[in-house]
Amino acid sequence: MERRNSETALIPALQVLSYFIIALGAVFMAFKAGSLPASRWEPMSAGTFPQIIFFGVALLCGVAAVVEISKQGFPRTSLNIAWKRLVALKAVIINLALFIIYMAFMPIAGFIVSTFIYLTIAQLYLAPKKPITLLIAIFVAALFSAGPYYLFSEVFNIYLPRAQW
Amino acid sequence: MTDAFLIALGGVTEPYTLLLMAVATFAGIVAAAIPGFTITMAIVLTLPLTFAMPPMQGISIMLSVYVGGLSGGLFSAALLGIPGTPSSVATTFDAFPMARQGNPGKALSLGLFASFVGSIISIAVLIVAAPPLALLAVKLGPWEYFALIIFALTVIASLVGDSLIRGLIAGLIGIAIATIGPDPLMGRERFTFGFEILTAGIPFLVVLIGMYAMSQLLSELEPTKSSGQHSSGSLISGDMRPHLWQTVKDILLKPANVIRSSLLGVFIGAVPGAGSSISNLLAYDQAKRASKHPETFGKGEPQGVVASESGNSSTVGGSLIPLIALGIPGSPADAVLMAAIMVHGISIGPRLILDHPDLVYSMFIAMAIASVFMLLIGIILMRVFLRLLNVPKYIIVPVVLTCCAIGTYTLNNRLSDLYLLAGIGAVGYILKKLDYPLAPLVLGVVLGPIAETNLRRAFQTSTDWTLFFTRPISALLLTLAVVSVVYSIYSYVKQRRLMAQRLDATSN
Q1: Are B172 and A123 in contact (CB < 8 Å)?
Q2: Which of A31, B279, B380, B424 lies at 20 to 30 Å from B245 by C-alpha?
Q3: Do B190 and A29 count as a contact with CB atoms less than 8 A apart?
Q4: DSSP H helical ranges for B237-356
Q5: Which positions 30-89 of A are in contact with B (Cβ < 8 Å)?
Q6: Residues 200 to 229 of B: which have CB under 8 A from any A CB?
Q7: pLDDT at B344
Q8: Is the pLDDT score of B115 beyond 60?
């Protein structure tokens, strides 16, 4: 039995792909675990437990792939559909990218500056394009960049990252 | 004994102490509502403030932070779908859907009242049963611990969502994530591949925040079906009334769930090393199994909220049992409490209750008072939190992501944790899109190291593996685990068949 169209087959196809990727990774890790040195003090070495778990993951992924394909047939989709779905997730991808850049930028620019820039850009990207949202975004960014920094440093004696310059 | 009780009552109910306790309860609730800011961290931060206080006052304040903290995770769990602390993971399953269905007030009031009842039940059990329960808990060896964890892991089978096999894969991936970094017994480095970022392992809270908070927040930015555009509206809207009377009726007229969950929480709390992160999941699981309509769980079922919140809040009473009776802390937060008592020159151990009965009674009284504060402050804060969440998504999503980054950084003051957070968040979102349930994964990360430690410890003690089946408590727990898995698979298959039949009927 095959899925009706390539639109509905996209997620199952990606799931089957994920089973293969996870299984391959798990088998690799299981062999890595097997190569961890044993200890003379304990019957179970540091690698035994993870090895069992990784082999378990690989086995389950194999079973999942076989069950899925034997029940529903190989899900047929197209790259065009996948691309369209990815484009629809533009807001998520851009925000994730902004967050990753923010994380990478924080050790250099410090918490206050990087947070201010991140919050301003992220809000302006998501907000309806009105003049008032610019003011709101800047106010919120200033409040949530300087506020937590001083709260943590003054009240809890925990210092959020400081700028390197 | 009466004198000691009266001294304790007088000490705790001084107006200044009561005021400080109210502030501490409020602080505990707020701290736990921030994802990544743990109860233990809140108690640690309170500790230096109590040095100059009399022991009774200091301990009362720290217990207030503890009690407040155990219910504070409810707010972010119900309103954002993000467990503020590991102890509120199961709360997200039903409280968040209930809030999204337009009943945020009901979700919060159910959780708060269940927390209150759970705390009160745990205090009652603590007073009556501290010595015998503590003695039972310390008799557990690594075999029983391992069996207990296996039993807890069977919860995975009931938390799998639409696909049993993907749920199990997610659970094992969680355990696998926990094996990265130093091994729990010998400290040998595993799976770091030379990356310094992985040498300390992946902290559980980073996984929790990344998997739950980031994946949930990113999902909020997906285009809505109606408009095709990402919505800029608020996350939660709907009925903001607390529905207190209805809540009281929901809980008190169906007492089996709240009593069972609370007693389970007390027992799990009494087992050193277990704690509220396990008790809320187990309580939820047992409520689902006992329900006549298990299919409603995960879709905004009130009994699910009641079970998880009473389960985690009752752990505080349980975890004090081994601390008071034997001087063994049941959780990291108890270890800080223990340190606070020792700072005042009081030795912890079996003689505590004999030498300082006033202090022990003050702990019982303080917990009861803090529970009342928790309920009252929670109800007041509820409206404030609900109003805060009427803020548009374009503000709340980036701001909460920033809070996640702060919470992650303050865990260990390590920038590398932030990179892990970003990576885990991205992976969590992908897994969520591919319909892998995240709850089993998070549960796997919590339970994996405990399972490994006890399994290896058991084999260090004796290479005879049959001990797992011949020691009575271990055998009982393993039998329960098998029954639990078989029953879960049976109900899962039955549910799928029913759904398929319904679908066939509608298509014909």
Answers
A1: no
A2: B279
A3: no
A4: 244-252, 255-270, 276-290, 302-313, 315-326, 332-343, 352-355
A5: 32-33, 36-37, 39, 41-44, 46-47, 49-50, 53-54, 56-57, 60-61, 63-64, 67, 88-89
A6: 214, 218-219, 221-223, 228
A7: 76
A8: yes
